[in-house]
Amino acid sequence: MKLPSLFRRTPFRLTLLFLALFVATASAVLAYVYVASASEARARAEAGVRAEVEALTAVYRTRGVDALNQALVDRTLRGGSYLYLLMDKDRKTITGNISTSPLDPGAAVQGGRWDDFRLTDTDEEGRVRKRQAIGVEMPLSGGEQLFVGEDIGDIEAYLSRLTQALWGAMIMVLILGIGGGLVISRRVEKSMSGLNRVVMAVQEGDLKVRAPVTHSGDELDELAQGLNTMLDRLEGSMASIRHAGDAIAHDLRSPLTRMRAKLEVALMDADAGKVSGVDALGVALDEADLLLKTFNTVLAIARLQAGGAPDPKVFDAAELATDMAELYEPSGEDKGLEFSSEIEQGLMIEGNQPFLAQALANIIDNAIKYTPSGGAVKFRARRRSSGEIEFSVTDTGPGVPDEDRERVLQRFVRLDNSRTEPGSGLGLSLVTAVAEAHGGRVQLDEGPGAYGGQGPGLRVALVLPPASGTAT
């Protein structure tokens, strides 16, 4: 038989577990209290009886049986919880407040013998009661038998009342604990049911649903906030994927159309004998390479955004910057540009060197591509006052308007003045992905300004954190 969901909840089970532990502990404490109290009461009763026996036997030794008899009469008249009985050699009663000894005759040995017994009594309503008592029967030198005992029924009654009170308190704790467990379980079940509804809705494809947040600051609230943050990122990722798919389909339409047109023209020229089939295949390969390059760049961006920079290592970024400057200086000179570099030494960073090299290549290549002949491109690598490592490329090209600087960092975004240049609009998007994967950022600012009919130019800075323990 399957239990109701409430009784299968972890909080309710934990409540029952803690209650079981409490009951076990309380029972052990109760048993200890009872045993300790009973032992203490018995020890005190035995001490009192022993003191009475010593006093009475002292009277017997010094003054004889008549004096002992008188002492017993006096004690009996005073009343109290002690029991007295003096018997002759034949165990006939001489005096006392009980008629017969409650101990067996064989119990009276040299030095006395202690024993427990039940004392029959009647209460105020005439009901017979059996009360706990202890006593000792002592043989006297003249052959008489002296019994001294004490009624400990009141102590036993007190212990019984104490036990009942403790059990009553335990039962109340159990009731309150189970009730509290039910309330807590109900609250947790209500909160968890809201989270479960969100999970089920997400499983069905609804990424806009969010878990309710009560702002109580407890664990369930933190879980709901974490789940909402995860759903925000998931929704953003899915939207980015959809946007990337739409953008790829839109941006690849032109290259595919162009490739088809070129292939069709090449086929017609080949049929007419104007070109060879090898030339036609070369055109097709060039267009296919462009498409593969676009796809590889998109995959690289997705890899960086999904898992960060792979295989990070600590290396000197100044050496990388020097290699990039030497690589692109000839390209700048071939286009008639003044290409210069300024590289500070000892720039230790932690990251993936191939990805950073690709990002710097994209920035420098864009600067050379969009700067008209006669302009200038300056590449710098330095340490900021904050300790961050900055790579910057400043050119005297047309620049990017303020309102478009955020947009050009997105995928497949190309401004109107760049439509005549080859490219897919993924260069700065890859730079941004590399920067974010390394915990850095990309900054776009205006260049040196308009001069000689050129400008205002653009300054692109890739800012990265230094390697741990190297910031100064």
Briefly summarize what is shown.
The chain is of the alpha+beta class and 472 residues long. It has 7 helices and 12 strands.
SSE arrangement:
Elements lengths: L9 H69 L3 E6 L5 E4 L16 E10 L5 E12 L5 E7 L1 H51 L15 H54 L4 H31 L5 E4 H18 L3 E6 L4 E4 L1 H18 L5 E8 L5 E7 L31 H11 L3 E6 L11 E7 L8
Parallel strand pairs: 7-9
Antiparallel strand pairs: 1-2, 1-5, 3-4, 4-5, 6-8, 9-10, 10-12, 11-12
Helix pairs in contact: 1-2, 3-4, 4-7, 5-6, 6-7
Organism: Brevundimonas bullata
Keywords: Kinase, Membrane, Phosphoprotein, Transferase, Transmembrane, Transmembrane helix, Two-component regulatory system
Protein name: histidine kinase
Describe the structure.
By secondary structure, the chain is α+β, with helices and mostly antiparallel strands. It folds into 3 domains: 5-159, 2-Layer Sandwich (Beta-Lactamase), CATH 3.30.450; 238-307, Helix Hairpins (Orthogonal Bundle); 313-464, Histidine kinase-like ATPase, C-terminal domain (Heat Shock Protein 90, 2-Layer Sandwich), CATH 3.30.565. It has 7 helices and 12 strands. The protein has helices spanning 10-78, 153-203, 219-272, 277-307, 317-334, 353-370, 427-437; strands at residues 82-87, 93-96, 113-122, 128-139, 145-151, 313-316, 338-343, 348-351, 376-383, 389-395, 441-446, 458-464. It has a 5-stranded antiparallel beta sheet with strand order 2-1-5-4-3. Strands 7-9-10-12-11 form a 5-stranded mixed beta sheet, covered by helices on one side. A two-stranded antiparallel sheet has the order 6-8. Helix 3 (219-272) runs antiparallel to helix 4. The longest helix is centred in the first third of the chain and has 69 residues, at 10-78. 24% of the residues are buried. The model is unreliable at 416-420 (pLDDT under 50).
